[in-house]
Amino acid sequence: MVSHAPVQHTGSDTERTSPWQWVSVLVLSLSTFVVVTSEMLPVGVLTPMADGLRIAPGSAGFSLTITGLVTAVTAPAVPRLLGAHDRRLVLVVAMVVLAAGNALTAVSQGFGLLVVSRIVLGIGMGAVWGLAAAVATRLVAPRNTALAVSATVSGVAAASVAGVPLGTLISNGFGWRAAFAALAAGSVLLAAGLLLTLPRLPRPEDPQGADAAVGHEGLLRSRPVVSGLVLVLLLVTAHFAAYTYVRPVLEERTALAPGSIALVLLVYGLFGLIGNFVAGSLAARRARGTVLGLTGGIALSIGLLALVSTTALLTGVSVALWGLTYGGLSVAGQIWMTQAAPHRVEHVTGVYVGVFTAAIALGAFLGGTVVEGAGITTLLWSAAVLAALALAVGFAGKPGGAPARVPATGTGALPG
Q1: What's the rounded Cα separation, in Å, for the pair 399 and 411?
Q2: Under CATH, which number does the domain 21-206+219-396 receive?
Q3: Quick one: which of 242, 272, 205 has its CA closest to 360?
Q4: Average pLDDT for residues 203-225, to the nearest whole number?
Q5: What's the angle, vertex CA 56, arms to CA 106 and CA 162, rounded to 5?
Q6: How many CA atoms lie within 13 A of 2 on its CB side?
Q7: Average model confidence (pLDDT) for the chain?
Q8: How far apart are CA 282 and CA 264, in angstroms?
Q9: What is the mean predicted confidence (pLDDT) over 195-208?
Q10: C-alpha span between 120 and 204 (Å, rounded)
């Protein structure tokens, strides 16, 4: 029988993570996979979804904006509202909410219900994504926290590897509604998996005894945290302004068939998964440098796509580079944040996810606005310039201190 005693860490350098603890990390990773697939699936099914709802593709793309805005509000609020509630049960409830959002999307007949469904989805997503990385550090021995965070956040990259392409294939074969229905069923199964595999997770102790109510304000007085958040805001906005409309790019400029589009998205995702684990390993030692390198790669790849997207092979190369560099951003940025605020992991994770998802919303909105007003080419160049601006901001900011060690409670920063 599975024990649900509260998780404890001794903090010993010789402590090892048990196989069952890794199972719990796997279930958490699958949860982030379904969460991000649920958010991003409209990218892969944008055209048939818009046709089915009888709305413009730009309006369908705005559904990402809705989800991102709700998640941006939910994720930072979660640590404040939870109090001493068991984080395991919160994650379970959030996955059920996510299932409801996907089910509503599957039965939507127009833009109105689509908006409602994406609001519900954003609430569930904000709670899961806002807690996942912080919870991952508590599931394993301190020596394994960097790998646990990388594995958990790999669900984000895996959503591009398997989630969006698989959803696109389901859409091609059975209709876009079937893809969202499958996500609803998967969310329910994972809610049960989290309940069975995770230990009880009460509120983590604050080693410094600071009041959690002022956690967010204190974080925003930290220069390393603020500089990282500004970079992420600009970069993720640039990425999603372009990526939300990657299917129209591949349809209109590269003239690919639906099956080929699914293959290109798979290439993007495979390289993204590689980038996730490579960046996680590098960022544990040099978080800022890793993020700056990824930022430059994203700017370069979007610029290349603007130049060569009329050629299928070169488009594939550009998309592969894009996936490799963006795939590592989420975990590298997460590690940067936890190293900058080692005793406020839940709070800094919530703020980071809030900024990240707000940038997703802003990027999808700006992308839709530019596509409708100026076209695909202008969109790609605008996104490339904004990513370059993010890189300039990153270089202008001063690096933070050395990475912090993980405290004995297992709730602190990643090992340096």
Answers
A1: 23
A2: 1.20.1250.20
A3: 242
A4: 57
A5: 50
A6: 16
A7: 82
A8: 27
A9: 75
A10: 27
Angstrom distance (rounded) from CA 176 to CA 198: 33
CA distance 367 to 126: 22
Please, is 84 exposed, middle or buried when counting C-beta atoms within 10 Å of its C-beta (0-12, 13-18, 19+)? exposed
| Res. 407: pLDDT tops 60 | no
User: Residue ranges of the domains in the chain?
Assistant: 21-206+219-396
Please identify which residue in the block is written with the tokens 């219900």.
Answer: 113
Model-wide pTM > 0.85? no
Q: Which amino acid is at 187?
A: S
Handedness of CA 67, 390, 414, 321 (dihedral sign): positive
* Half-sphere CA count of 47, side-chain side, radius 13 A: 13
Q: How far apart are the first and last CA of the chain?
A: 36
Alpha carbons 213 and 366: distance in angstroms, whole number = 34
Q: How far apart are CA 377 and CA 371, in angstroms?
A: 9
Among 272, 273, 271, 326, smallest CA distance to 299 is for: 326
CA distance 212 to 346: 10
Which residue type sits at 373?
Answer: G
Rounded to an integer, the average pLDDT of 222-232 is 84
Nearest Cα residue to 349 out of 199, 357, 296: 357
Residue 52 has pLDDT above 80, yes or no: yes
Alpha-carbon distance 180 to 303, whole Å?
Answer: 32
CB distance 102 to 185 below 8 Å: no
Flag whether pLDDT at 336 surpasses 70.
yes
Write the burial class of residue 2 (CB in 10 Å: 0-12 exposed, 13-18 middle, 19+ buried).
Answer: exposed
What letter does residue 110 receive in the DSSP assignment? S
b/e burial code for range 165-180 (CB count within 10 A of at least 16 → b) = bbbbbbbbeebbbebb
The answer to whether 322 and 267 have CB atoms below 8 angstroms apart is: no
> What is the Cα–Cα distance from 78 to 87, expressed in whole angstroms?
10
Q: Name the maximum alpha-carbon separation found in the chain.
A: 60
Q: What is the CA radius of gyration of the chain?
A: 20
Q: Using one digit for the tens of pLDDT, what is the confidence trace for 156-195?
A: 777 766 788 788 889 888 999 999 999 999 999 999 999 9
